[in-house]
Amino acid sequence: xxxxxxxxxxxxxxxxxxxxxxxxxxxxxxxxxxxxxxxxxxxxxxxxxxxxxxxxxxxxxxxxxxxxxxxxxxxxxxxxxxxxxxxxxxxxxxxxxxxxxxxxxxxxxxxxxxxxxxxxxxxxxxxxxxxxxxxxxxxxxxxxxxxxxxxxxxxxxxxxxxxxxxxxxxxxxxxxxxxxxxxxxxxxxxxxxxxxxxxxxxxxxxxxxxxxxxxxxxxxxxxxxxxxxxxxxxxxxxxxxxxxxxxxxxxxxxxxxxxxxxxxxxxxxxxxxxxxxxxxxxxxxxxxxxxxxxxxxxxxxxxxxxxxxxxxxxxxxxxxxxxxxxxxxxxxxxxxxxxxxxxxxxxxxxxxxxxxxxxx
Length: 360
Prior knowledge:
Strand content: 15-25%
Distance between the termini: 65 Å
Order of helices and strands: HHHEHEEEHEHEEHEEHEHEHEE
Helix content: 25-40%
Number of helices: 10
Radius of gyration: 25 Å
Strand order of the largest sheet: 3-4-13-12-11-9-10-8
Shape: globular
Mean pLDDT: 82
Largest sheet: 8 strands, mixed
């Protein structure tokens, strides 16, 4: 019979829910000590040792305060984990190990899982997933709104990127929300992003603090006045450059913009040993959303075709930000999904107000 290793025992003891149990035991002991020391101190105020007793009481009270603070921190991040998955039936789930680690570190877990057949939902060259996306968004909203008030709420998306954008656009604004990037290769590389809080307004007003962790650039790579549609290529992950201008031009666009990091040599785009941290993910989401908002306002009558290679939490945050800034972008935007089996890009319709035809 194999004896449990200390690493395994430690993992069990300090898993999310067990950390709370240990802290609550500690708080109970600290309360008892503080109460006892306070009683003894009050009883001995008029003897020579009263200073020692006062000091001991103060230490017990400080310990209690620290334990209460730690309990609050543990419950807030990551708090309750919402695992949200929407994948094709034939796809492999590369994030199983990272999800298991995230579950281990969380106080409680809620799960929404949908497996769909994209081929079944394809009609006239467009994949229609509006109903599935609305089902997932509604289920998540109900879970978050009925969840505990004293814990954090962390969403771990594992979905097609257009569906992730739609999910972000439907998140309830009444809660402080976090998003967890489940790394496809290593659970140690999971990254937590806090969704930015905004009053609904006309602009994002980016500061250097928002941009510096991962500055992006937008370049116009193609222009053809005989066509009206605008293509945007969001290139934030490895293999982004496999999408060429020729691929995009098969959709007869008038302009092509590419959004990518300024420093590509020291980023995951060129170095497989690097991954984005939380501040870089936040910077990317803010800048991409700001760029899309500017393009939409500068071109109010044109349709957009968006190709994206980006982290899941960036897509979630982009949807979250766009919907809060008075921009009706979805109604004239195609979000392109790459069909690996057929080697082509297909519009994936995730919101009811998106166009249901695309001319090529």
